[in-house]
Amino acid sequence: MEQKRCIVVGAGIGGLAASIRMAARNYEVSVLEKNKLPGGKMHQIERNGFRFDTGPSLFTLPHLVTELLNLGPEPSEPTFRYEKLKNVCRYFYDDGTMINVPGNPEDFAREAEIKTGEPAANIINYLNTARERYRSSADLFIFNPLKNLISSARHKKPEELKPLLKVKPLRSMHKENEIAFQSSQIIQLFDRYATYNGSSPFKASSMLNMISHLEHDEGAYFPEKGMYNIVESLYHKALSLGVKFQFETAVTHLVSEKDSITKVIAGNKELEADLVISDVDVNTLYRGPARKLKMPRSVKKPDLSSSALIFYWGMNRTFPQLDVHNILFSTDYRGEFRAIFNNHQLFNDPTVYIFVSSKIVEADAPKGKENWFVMINVPPGTEKTDQEWIKQARENILKKIHRTLKINPREDILFEEIATPKTIETNTGSWKGALYGNNSNSIWSAFLRHQNKSRKYHNLFFTGGSVHPGGGIPLCLASAAIVEKEINQQ
Ligand SMILES: Cc1cc2nc3c(=O)[nH]c(=O)nc-3n(C[C@H](O)[C@H](O)[C@H](O)COP(=O)(O)OP(=O)(O)OC[C@H]3O[C@@H](n4cnc5c(N)ncnc54)[C@H](O)[C@@H]3O)c2cc1C
């Protein structure tokens, strides 16, 4: 039988996953990628003996990666290895409190009680609720097309849906956390999960409080060779299944005829396709290659997720007070989110995330040194990100580190690289540098998100962080699985 041709536009994590799935289904798959290398937001920098993962650093649900590596006639050589982190994260507060969150709920609850006075039972109850919510909703909201919501729910037993019926979706994440906990530090710790899809805990629905279940209960993991190894492993898997990659090939045009996409144009290349799967941020896609297609309302006026300003610092020494993942919390979390989503400004007391992969992957920094990935959330948008803006943010970060950790890292920075909303947009095609497409600041966000199959074109599909079910590695991988289901059903 003649093989059907599938073109995947973009080799981000969603595009790689979709290419593997379609090749395993015996499609002839070509991936067109504008960059020189695969990965999109999941990239790496190597400099002076240091290696930095440039984008994602928090890794949950690793089985979604291994599942892909086992597709096709021959499972991959097990070159992709990962380990469960002993500690999920270290949280630092300006008053000197440090909560070292261990990888199991009981130890975490004990540590929280010792450090903040929050009764351990409150943490355990909260995580139990998050687990129940996740289990009763994951296949409705994450692993299936949203249009199947009602039919999927019909297949569930009433007791399976009970945890969902107890959710008060109009309540914000913060409000629910305020009701659940006594300690303002624990409230802030759980509020932070809104940032996992670039949203504000003061606006996003309490339904999203289940995100914490993934790290605290299912576990936080790390690939043995760093995050970029996820990309390398998937890329090699795709190659082994016969996927053809064309790098430095930016798609400029999707050509439609009646209800199908007939051709994909990339510069002077013209490729015919039976199926097209786009991994490009939809907000960019409809303003670029798909500008002739009808733009959905959520794309016309996108309510974007946050962006980031990141400094990659090669550090001249090691810092025992830090772990792999570290958060230095703002003293005014509400003010910080107001600055990001309402005032579109830098905040002078930002929450600073410091990720040090060399704590776990020794080869990521020369002996006696560390690779710091230092990130703050900033508004999406590329207009105000000039040198003055970067300088101001850098000062805010250095002051915050000094205030909270009582160290002055200035003299220890050997060199730095910087990522801004502008460079994130240029390098990955994310509209305005938004990390996760549109935000989830409204209870309708999940329903308004762009779906994985085009309504008009029967052979056009969408994967990646800007479409259903959302951004972040696990959800991007889920989006590729949904695309496969949609194509299969068709
Ligand atoms: C700084 C940062 C930190 C993050 N932290 C985490 C984290 O800790 N954990 C987590 O799970 N997630 C995190 N994320 C989110 C996660 O990285 C993304 O959700 C995910 O990587 C997006 O994958 P994607 O499939 O949408 O493709 P993308 O990574 O967006 O890639 C899209 C690809 O399409 C290509 N492209 C664009 N236009 C064209 C065109 N016209 N023609 C051809 N190719 C094109 C781009 O070059 C790019 O390679 C983070 C993201 C960033 C930026």
TrEMBL record:
Q: Where is the signal peptide?
A: none
Write down the superkingdom of origin.
Bacteria
Question: Pathway, according to UniProt?
Answer: Carotenoid biosynthesis
Keywords of this protein's UniProt record, alphabetized?
Carotenoid biosynthesis, Oxidoreductase
Q: Which organism is it from?
A: Marinilabilia salmonicolor
Name this protein carries in UniProt: Phytoene desaturase
Single Gene Ontology MF annotation? oxidoreductase activity
Q: Where is the Amine oxidase domain?
A: 13-480
Q: Name one GO biological process term.
A: carotenoid biosynthetic process
Q: Report the sequence similarity comment from the record.
A: Belongs to the carotenoid/retinoid oxidoreductase family.
